[in-house]
């Protein structure tokens, strides 16, 4: 059995490996894109398969909707792609079309619609293990009016860049990312331990999730994808701590709703 020290050393090595994955590459992924006349365009094989995946997902959702676009976003549409990247496939629809209203006070309806699509895509992603050239494919349904936060967005339908990525010269403070990631990891480990000891951790989980959400959003607003806040969140997602927090939440909810013999 591994000692606690051995596990900590392994975790540290893993986090440093993940940190290196944030390094900016000289080119976009050649598995997804090819260079034509000095411009990166998606391989036809990839484009056709992503459209096929979208159509299959639409059949699964079983709701009539007009697709405004299908876009690839995230690190695979940028120069910071790595072995940890996902094929972030976003299907753009107009949420207002579902309630026939363009009024400014329909946020409640839009929230319901968003939750519906989030649930559908979560079920789809959990029940399918689709990979594109070794990268996991994750589907999202996005309101066409939602602002693009990514610095690289490629239209799969139109075969052109919506937001063309540029190589970033932004300095990545690795020590700061590792230290902040360690802080959140300790909080999550503590919640997991309290849960195993039978303590009610509902509020603790909510506090951490809210802190993470605000922390990441603040980074995206002021520094974009390469802000240390967003990269810290990516570190926690790639090293499994976001998944651990969600797993504790699921187990806590299941235990509360169950009746023991």
Explain how this protein is built:
The chain folds into 2 domains: 4-22 and 170-257, no CATH class; 33-163, Beta Polymerase, domain 2, CATH 3.30.460. The two termini are 34 Å apart. It is globular, with a radius of gyration of 20 Å. The strands form 2 sheets. A 6-stranded mixed sheet has the order 5-6-4-3-7-8, sandwiched between helices. Helix content is 49%, strand content 15%. With 261 residues, the chain is α+β, with helices and mostly antiparallel strands. α4 packs antiparallel against α5 (202-223), α4 packs across α6 (228-238) and α5 packs across α6. The chain is built from 7 helices and 8 strands. It has helices at residues 4-20, 44-61, 107-127, 174-196, 202-223, 228-238, 241-257, and strands spanning 33-36, 39-42, 69-73, 86-93, 131-132, 135-143, 153-155, 160-163.
Reported CATH architecture of the largest domain: 2-Layer Sandwich
Strand order, sheet with most strands? 5-6-4-3-7-8
Low-confidence stretches: none
SSE class: alpha+beta
Instruction: Quote the beta fraction.
Output: 5-15%
CATH first level of the largest domain: Alpha Beta
Short description:
With 261 residues, the protein is an alpha+beta fold.
SSE blueprint:
Blueprint: H1 4-20, E1 33-36, E2 39-42, H2 44-61, E3 69-73, E4 86-93, H3 107-127, E5 131-132, E6 135-143, E7 153-155, E8 160-163, H4 174-196, H5 202-223, H6 228-238, H7 241-257
Parallel strand pairs: 4-6
Antiparallel strand pairs: 1-2, 3-4, 3-7, 5-6, 7-8
Helix pairs in contact: 4-5, 4-6, 4-7, 5-6
């Amino acid at each position: 059995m591994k000692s606690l020290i051995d596990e900590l050393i392994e975790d540290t090595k893993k986090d440093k490996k993940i940190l290196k994955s944030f390094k900016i590459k000289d080119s976009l992924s050649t598995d997804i894109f090819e260079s034509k006349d000095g411009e990166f365009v998606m391989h036809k094989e990839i484009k056709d398969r992503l459209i096929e995946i979208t159509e299959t997902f639409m059949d699964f959702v079983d709701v009539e909707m007009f697709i405004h676009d299908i876009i690839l976003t995230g690190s695979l549409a940028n120069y910071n792609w790595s072995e940890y990247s996902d094929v972030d496939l976003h299907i753009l629809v107009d949420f207002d079309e579902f309630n026939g209203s363009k009024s400014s006070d329909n946020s409640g309806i839009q929230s319901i619609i968003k939750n519906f699509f989030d649930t559908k895509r979560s079920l789809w992603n959990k029940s399918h293990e689709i990979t594109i050239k070794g990268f996991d494919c994750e589907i999202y349904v996005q309101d066409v009016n939602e602002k693009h936060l990514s610095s690289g967005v490629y239209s799969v339908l139109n075969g052109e860049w919506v937001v063309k990525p540029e190589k970033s010269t932004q300095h990545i403070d690795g020590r700061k990312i590792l230290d902040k990631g360690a802080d959140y990891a300790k909080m999550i480990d503590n919640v997991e331990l309290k849960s195993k000891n039978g303590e009610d951790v509902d509020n603790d989980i909510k506090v951490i999730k809210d802190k993470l959400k605000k922390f990441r959003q603040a980074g995206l607003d002021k520094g974009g994808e390469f802000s240390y806040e967003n990269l810290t969140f990516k570190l926690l997602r790639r090293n499994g701590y976001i998944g651990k927090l969600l797993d504790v939440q699921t187990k806590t909810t299941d235990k509360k709703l169950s009746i023991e013999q």
